[in-house]
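Journal club prep — side note

Before the paper discussion, L.F. wants everyone to see what a predicted structure for a comparable chain looks like in token form. Sequence:
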Amino acid sequence: MADNELKKVYRTYQTIRPDGTYFALMYWPPDVEVVHPYTTDPIPDELKAKLPFYDWSQLKWIDGSADTLKLQLSQLAAGLKSTGQTAATANTTATDAKTAAEGASSQAEQLQAALLEISDLVLSSTIAKDDTNPVEGGTK
């Protein structure tokens, strides 16, 4: 390797990145020291088609696919559980709102009926009163 050539360095991650990998490939000058979480260990050919993950306890690349799948499934399950709980809460809130609305509607109907009764009583009282008072300047 010539002095002016750059070396391949992998920045390793313990969790999967948004691009679906556990590493980022970089090129550094050859005289720069590589320390954790960086490694110059190349990814083995048999892992290149899989999901390479650098295991620092073994100091080697391993297939991270199983762990990734488990993680994604557990995150999906947690998301579904959370969504289910949110839906159940929303359903309870909607049911409570429906019950309150039905109660308010019933109360409004009762108040309307009471107002109509009062209105009828006032009108019939006014009509009866008008029938007993003679009109000025004439007879009834």
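L.F.'s comment for the group: The chain has two domains: 7-63, 64-130. Keep this in mind when we get to the figures.
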